[in-house]
Input
Amino acid sequence: MSFANDVRNELARIIPEKECCKKAELSALLLTSARISRQTGSLYNLEAVVEKAATARKIFKLLKSQELQSSVRMEKRRRFTKTRVYLVNTPIENEQGLAKINSLVFIEDARIKPQVNQELLSKACCRKAFLRGLFLNRGFINRPEGEYHLELVLNDAKLAADIQRILLRFKISARLGERKNHLLLYIKESEKIVDFLRVVGASSALLEFENVRIIKSMRNNVNRQVNCETANLAKTIDAAVRQIELIKKLVALDGWEGIPDKYIELAQLRIDFPDNALSELGTMLDPPLSKSGVAYRMRKLEEYADKRLQSK
Output
């Protein structure tokens, strides 16, 4: 099972305690999955089509909490890559039932408008519930082991802008993109994804995400340190090889006695200990020198050798 499904299953089990939060979450679920049609024998029929049985059960329970009687059935049909969907049907038999639905989503010309009912989102807890319902139907999140990515797939620009503003109320910035004629709000920053999971109440998924994120961070730090040390070692080896070649050419030209006294001890140590760093050579000198002191003396030795060899 994918990490996204784990998150959805966790969110589907959360039933809000407050009546206002139930309405807010149900509003998001209907806004992103339902359609309304005229029905023989009743005013309308509200049909929510979802891909997960757990989401269908949640819509059923939340509708029941609003005293709206529904039925759930499974149907095989082609929907994206899925062949099985769940339909939650709610007959609206009178004006009272229509008013209840209209308090959750806006109905115009026998269709549900892609518009957020801001009256339901006056409280922070209701905005959290709304985002939870939104993710259940339109959300996706990558496994934290891979690239960090969370998205909400939408089909209306105004709706996307409204949801973008709701996310900003929680200091979560989401970018707007487009894929295959669908708009999407996406988040790439791991800290913001953590914030989103916290806001919608996905506690278990949040812990798993954080654990993987910590491990990845430690692994990246170790890799950076190893790469840095490897690069430094390569530079040290390259410098040592160059220095040894210069010293050997200088000795071949003038002998050891041709090297100035102030450089000869360092030159001999460099030949005798080709793998040692400059700081290690500095501790062997008499008197000892710091790494910067040895580097300065070695640079002067190289300059002397270059001049002497060029004047040959």
Summary: The beta strands are 34-39, 42-50, 71-79, 82-92, 107-108, 111-112, 139-141, 150-154, 175-179, 182-187. The radius of gyration is 35 Å. DSSP finds eleven helices and ten strands in the chain.
